[in-house]
Amino acid sequence: MKEVICAYCGKDTYNVDIEYLIGGNHLSCVLMDQLSDAIEKEKKMNKKKPVEISNWSKLVGNKFDVMGASFTIRDAHTDSLDEGNVYAAWVHATDDNEPFVRVTLFADNMDMQVKVVPPLDYNGNMTPYDLSSTITKHHISNPSIFIQTIAEALLSDSTTRDLLLYVSRKQDNIRFKGRGYSNPTGISGSNGFGGNNLW
Ligand SMILES: [Zn+2]
Q: The whole model's pTM is what?
């Protein structure tokens, strides 16, 4: 007995009417295969591309004030994952070697995680905690807006507002001993890039 095998389903097509075949394969199997290829291709095209922030490292050196407390971004780095890059930055209270917050931005879903590290002299028993929010492309359109986004995340939480006041008072004590620096209130961002877009 003669045998012809469909390459897609492995069944014998020798007795199948030629109208339902392409070569020795079932017409239906060939069409289903083409359809699933097309669907796969479409899925890939619809998958939104994670945001890329090529100049994330330029955040380093930016200074900003929240509730009178002064901060400096000291470190920023990028981890590349299949799901999209993960961006991290360390924000220090100015002149403090311990970070005050670590900001992590997950590019695949635009989740921003702000991990607050309470200063040891505020309360040694307090452990770091996370403030999370989902941001949009707008929030990373330039460093000033992104820094403002970090500041707003800090201000949105009452525990963190207490910490900000604590940092502010600590910095005031140093300022009054020193140069008599006037204490700014609210949020003000400054960066050394003349308002250029970073990304
Ligand atoms: Zn078949």
A: 0.67
How far does the centroid of ligand 1 lie from the alpha carbon of residue 12, in Å?
A: 8
* CA of residue 29 to ligand 1 center, whole Å: 5
How many angstroms is it from 2 CA to the middle of ligand 1? 17
Highest mean pLDDT among 50-59, 67-76, 182-191: 67-76
Helix (H/G/I), strand (E/B), else coil: 47: coil
Both 77 and 39 in a single domain?
no
Ligand 1 center to 65 CA (angstroms) = 68
CA 4, 39, 86, 133 dihedral sign is negative
| Dist CA 163 CA 168 (whole Å) | 8
Q: Could you read off the pLDDT of 142-165 as tens digits, one per residue? A: 888 999 999 999 999 999 999 999
Do residues 160 and 75 share a domain? yes
Q: Which domain holds residue 31?
A: 1-47
Same domain, 19 and 71: no
CA–centroid distance, 39 to ligand 1, in Å, is 20
Express each pLDDT in 160-199 by its tens digit: 999 999 999 999 888 776 554 454 444 555 444 433 344 4
pLDDT at 51: 79
Please tell me the distance between residue 20's alpha carbon and the centre of ligand 1 in angstroms: 10
Q: Are residues 40 and 125 in the same domain?
A: no
Residues 68 and 10 in one domain: no
108 and 191, same domain (yes or no): yes
Distance 31 CA to ligand 1 centre (A): 10
Q: How far is the CA of 45 from the centre of ligand 1 (A)?
A: 29
DSSP string, 63-77: EEEETTEEEEEEEEE
Q: Would you give the end-to-end CA distance of the chain in angstroms?
A: 68
